[in-house]
Amino acid sequence: MDVPDSSAPVASFQQVWKRFGDIVAARDLNLDVRSGEFLSFLGPSGCGKTTMLRMIAGFEQPSEGDIYLHGSRVNGVPAHKRRVNMVFQHYALFPHLNIARNVAYGLKQAKPRLAKNVIDERVDEALDLVQLGGYQQRRIWELSGGQQQRVALARALVNKPEVLLLDEPLAALDRKLRREMQIELQNLQRNLGITFVLVTHDQEEALSMSDRVCIMRDGEIVQVGSPRELYDNPVNRYVADFVGKSNFFDGVVESTGDGRQAVKLENGQSLDVDLPTTGDSMANGHQVALSVRPEQIVLARDPARLPDDAAIVIEAEVRNRIFLGEHTEYLLHDDAFGEFLALAPRQVEASETPFEVDEKVYVGWSRAAALLLDNTT
């Protein structure tokens, strides 16, 4: 291993490829993991996110390219010689050992050997961190799923890793407990200042916990950014569809001018979309997806209540209504636009009163609410 560079990213992929026979699991990956950040790899099954995590850990080696940890090239360096620890989806705890011995397992493999009192102190500190102080003598089967997850965390943290790798560690928990553990993981990461790298297919989990999210597809990185950047400025339809909900209407760019682009949709409708603040535009004739988030769609019984700069005004039929607490989700239908979703906040419905199934309502969205996305990638 090379001499570490303290100013370098905590981990770095440089033109990394990974092949398993004829299968390409990762292709031309270039990514810097910043020191102290909470980064998530997000994507569907088989997109390469776990392969990236395992290459950081040292369980897999790149077929091409280089991986660095703190500026040191670690190609070929085995997992036990890297200052990283991994928490697995199924925890991989030892049922024949009590909690203290599970947590101490890694410390007992250290060379030179640590004194027993040092190991005991480190174990106690790690269990206190995950709020399991006093559980040292308990057995694994005596713990809930959430407590077992904390033991797995303590076992990883006791070695004081530079990077903590989390492979869908909350997937086995119920929704309420998963949310509680998400908050605990965030607090733990902030308090310790350790770099956390999470693999998940749950977009809500990635967006709520991460400083940055790396969206993946077919072994490639599609976009990296903060949750807000990915939600507000997706680079293509794939990202917009994967991060949050969106309505998509396919079409082509007709013209550009005066800070707007005119789009002709496949349904024959033409409408204007404001250019993004960057001023970037797509060429005339380019195939695009017009993306409109459900919360950006305004519903009204009186068309005068729609935005003054509405890109389009249509009359649609309410097909379904789902009450979700802070807002209501409506499934709407129009002969030209097909079915699409809208979210109405409770404060809006307080003045308008909820819309009924089969009711006809006016629908519109502002020019700035719609995004033009590349529909070819």
Biggest sheet: strands side by side, in what order? 6-7-8-3-9-10
CATH architecture classification of the largest domain: 3-Layer(aba) Sandwich
Beta-strand percentage range: 35-45%
The radius of gyration over CA amounts to: 25 Å
What structural class do the secondary elements suggest? alpha+beta
Helix count, per DSSP? 9
**What is the number of domains?**
2
The named CATH superfamily of the largest domain: P-loop containing nucleotide triphosphate hydrolases
Largest sheet: 6 strands, mixed
The oligomeric state is single chain
Form type: elongated
Helical content (DSSP H or I, runs of 4+): 10-25%
CATH topology of the largest domain: Rossmann fold
How confident is the prediction overall: mean pLDDT?
88
Tell me the name of the CATH class of the largest domain: Alpha Beta
Task: Please provide the ordered H/E string of secondary-structure elements.
Answer: EEEHEEEHHHEHEHEEHHEEEEEEEEHEE
Total beta-strand segments? 20
Distance between the termini: 39 Å
Element layout with pairings:
Elements: E1 11-20, E2 23-33, E3 38-42, H1 49-57, E4 64-69, E5 72-73, E6 84-87, H2 99-108, H3 116-129, H4 145-157, E7 163-167, H5 175-192, E8 195-200, H6 203-209, E9 212-217, E10 220-225, H7 227-232, H8 237-242, E11 247-257, E12 260-265, E13 270-274, E14 287-292, E15 298-300, E16 310-323, E17 327-334, E18 338-345, H9 346-352, E19 360-366, E20 371-374
Parallel strand pairs: 3-8, 3-9, 6-7, 7-8
Antiparallel strand pairs: 1-2, 1-4, 4-5, 9-10, 11-12, 11-14, 12-13, 14-20, 15-19, 16-17, 16-19, 17-18
